[in-house]
Write a structure and sequence with these properties.
Blueprint: H1 3-12, H2 15-22
Length: 23
Amino acid sequence: MPRCNTIVIAFSAPPKYSFPSFD
């Protein structure tokens, strides 16, 4: 998934979901 989507998820969902996405 594009990095932009991960950023949106970080704001929409808790940080726990954003960290694994970046990894």
